[in-house]
Amino acid sequence: MTTASPADELALLTRLRRDLHRIPELDFDLPETLRYVCGELEALCDDVTARYGKDACTVFSPCKSSLCMFFDRKSEHATAVRSDMDALPVTEKSGAEYASCHQGHMHACGHDGHMAMVLGLAHHLAESFDELPRSVLLVFQPAEETTGGARFICESGVFERYGVDRIFGFHLWPDLAMGEVASRPGPLLAATSESTFDFHGKATHIAKAADGADSLEAGMRFVLDAYGYMAEQAKAEPCLLKFGLLQSGQARNVISSHTHIEGSLRTYSDTMTVTAKQHLAELAESRAAEAGCTCTVHFSEGYPPVVNDEALFDLARAALPDLHELPEPLLIGEDFAFYQRHLPGVFLLLGTGTGIPLHADTFDFDERILAAGLETYKKLVRIP
């Protein structure tokens, strides 16, 4: 079969991305998205099986709201490539002619682009099936933005059944130049843990403050001390704790009996995660006791850190001479981390060059960047 020209590939990527951008859906509730992706994959699979036999290609769902396509080259091991499919509960204000048709939902994090690249790769693999050095598994997962759909893919056993020994994935990244591909060995993205602290005191008029227990003072002292503690920890290993919400009290002249504080902890290793949570809880309890208060502390499980396998990264770097290596890890989280807990994986970033932040209601990008992502995938699946 004739290989598609760059112009044809860009037209394909643009069509796929814009079609998918119009139908954003959330979490595991992805009926239109799944129908669209499945339709594309099954048409390609029919073509491959017509040329190479019924076992050459299969399309299936390993778990809820997911799709996989397997190109079977009868190799001992296979390479996996992942795309997320879910969108965000954001009302789009981009003004694009291909804007969301679903009120209150938007592909504001680039998952439409992620799907377009992997679907574009599926087209390429169908065209060049007999040139592949190993089998390839394409994975389309739900719920990256919410509960971590990657975890359910791993638990399905699909990687073991198909002999997958490595996985690659992309995320669009506004802070990189248009079309630039970047990553780094080792830690790339942070573990995330939503952190909640409640200080319980005793209300009284401020004129009789000694009779009360000031939860607001305890909470404020804790915030400042927590920031100081994390700043010291960051000297040894990158980490961050920031609070974005503090609610306390009922009136200006009444000692507050309850202070509620919410923030997010970001770390890059299990050791730092465990250590920071332990010490922050101890610090909260200490500041509460000093003020005659009690406290409750909750840390969400969150996503693990995205840590690129160094041996696989070396293979990727050799295949990608233009790969830009980032000097420091970044502070966002991504559920690709669950795959890397299961098998060696490398996650990459693809620059949009726009500077419009992820999750913004005006997020958009030039589809020409997707061609750079597709070319990267073509090289990665050809690593023996």
TrEMBL record:
Named cofactor requirement(s): Mn(2+)
SUPFAM superfamilies in the record: Bacterial exopeptidase dimerisation domain, Zn-dependent exopeptidases
GO molecular function: hydrolase activity; metal ion binding
Binding positions (Mn(2+)): C109, H111, E145, H171, H359
UniProt keywords, alphabetically: Hydrolase, Manganese, Metal-binding
Entry keyword Amino-acid biosynthesis: no
UniProt name for this protein: Amidohydrolase
